[in-house]
Amino acid sequence: MKLSIYLQNPLPDADAVTQALRHTDICVAVDNERIVLTTESLVPATFAPGDAELSYAAWQRINELIAIVNGSAQIEGGALHGIALANVAYEDGEGKQQHLPGVVRMRGVLPALRSTPPDPSEFISVALRDRAAAKALRLVSRELDWCNLYRIFEVVTGDVGESEIVASGWASETEIDAFTASANNESVTGDDSRHGRPSNGTPRNTVELPDAQHVIKRIVRGWLSSKVTPRSPSVAQSG
Predict the structure, then answer these.
(1) How many CB atoms are closer than 10 A to CB 25?
(2) Cβ atoms of 42 and 65 closer than 8 Å
(3) What is the pLDDT, as a whole number, of residue 111?
(4) What is the pTM of this model?
């Protein structure tokens, strides 16, 4: 199945993305002022977009690719800070591009869309003067398993409340419900659950660990961004 993966990255990133993917069969091009990755090996040719499970599997593979590229960029540094997904299209039997449908389970999977390169400096500044922010970032530096993710979630909700997370658009109520249900339910997360006691039934909305990690990171990013003190023009110019 031929996929076209459109990125949010600005056009100047095209060369760095091309260099990063030069040892793969993924082609990098520019289409309508957007960087697009094309590949036929990521998803099997038997992919059927009408099948929810297969659509979910396709999105998972795309998400894995994004994570692999971003993880490599973090380790190696250099010109590429990472890539951010905009949307995905596939080529149907007639050679026409169609939008790849999402599924309900994908709520927490897609990487957060970024309009600027990553910049941890502001968050570090916040953490040096804000106890809750410092606690959250210390926890984020550890393994992001279910228990630790829930600790991070409790730090944020202890500071601003769950309703503020939803109101600010950092995560939806459905995403939060799926995360807390999964983290606390032994029938979903097994021995990694926060609770050791057997669970009575499986909740309707659940989320897998990579999805949960993404949701909590998005919540923390939004929360920390809300704590960043805007810099006035006069202060910026005085330096």
Answers:
(1) 10
(2) yes
(3) 45
(4) 0.50
